[in-house]
Amino acid sequence: MRLDVVSIFPEYLAALDLSLIGKARRDGLLEMSVTDLRDFTADRHRTVDDTPYGGGAGMVMKPEPWAQALEQIRDSTPGSRGDQPGGPARSQRPVLIVPSPAGEVFTQETARELAERDHLVFACGRYEGIDERVLEWARESFEVRPMSLGDYVLNGGEVAVLAMVEAIGRLIPGVIGNPQSLVEESHSDGLLEYPVYTKPASWRERGIPEVLLSGHHGKIARWRRDEQLRRTSSRRPDLIERLQPADLDARDRAA
Ligand code: ADE
């Protein structure tokens, strides 16, 4: 998979050299490059923002540096040039992800879907956001997806990109050593993960649930499933409501 990130703070993305994502880059599973938006300005101050039409607080990111940065990325991608008649085929288009509190919510399902794509481009806005015409223009060559991490406001898209790249990158085959750990984690089956414990069995006068010491795999599996249901009902009742009847077995319904 190829990843491009455009930002006025490229240093923010240095964290993607670390840990599993950094290893995936070194192993050639992920090819990533970070572009400084200010390299596409023409004035002495390398200006990327201006006042909003219609007035109001804050500044808006100017369209031209964005167009030039995205054109350079687009034109270095085989098969994705926007100058072909009718534009490139939908499946060949890179996905342009624009982190924004006004986007669709990024979920595990979104991460799974994006992990299948060949080329993701992240456009990190700052201030009040990017001139809307950039997103309209970009639709000729990219599949444009404004994406929100959740209902709160960050100062810019960079931190959201760190979270999204980690969530997507770990789903690429080969990035996580033991793929079974992807099956047993929160959100993989629409529920939150069960509680986990490690040695010692007694710690500061606190024990662990007896069943985990029983060696009885069926009972342990049932206990874990019940804990998932209990935890999800109490912390995230919205997730329980979204479950389909087929997601629950007879024992779940009784629990
Ligand atoms: N940029 C600012 N706030 C954001 C959010 N909640 N999600 C994604 N990008 C953002």
TL;DR?
With 255 residues, the protein is an alpha/beta fold. Helix content is 32%, strand content 15%. The protein has two domains: 2-169, SPOUT methyltransferase, trefoil knot domain (Alpha/beta knot), CATH 3.40.1280.10; 184-254, tRNA(m1g37)methyltransferase, domain 2 (Trp Operon Repressor, Chain A).
Explain this structure:
- The radius of gyration is 22 Å and the shape is elongated.
- It has helices at 19-26, 63-75, 108-114, 132-138, 158-169, 180-183, 217-235, 237-242, 250-254; strands at residues 2-7, 31-36, 49-50, 60-61, 95-105, 119-123, 143-148.
- The protein is 32% helix and 15% strand.
- The protein has a 5-stranded parallel sheet with strand order 2-1-6-5-7. A two-stranded antiparallel ribbon has the order 3-4.
- It has 255 residues and is an alpha/beta fold.
- The chain folds into 2 domains: 2-169, Alpha/beta knot; 184-254, tRNA(m1g37)methyltransferase, domain 2 (Trp Operon Repressor, Chain A, Orthogonal Bundle).
- Adenine (ADE) binds next to β5.
- Adenine is lined by residues 99-101, 148-150, 152-154, 157, 160.
- Residues 75-94 are annotated as: Disordered.
- It catalyses: guanosine(37) in tRNA + S-adenosyl-L-methionine = N(1)-methylguanosine(37) in tRNA + S-adenosyl-L-homocysteine + H(+).
- Its EC number is 2.1.1.228.
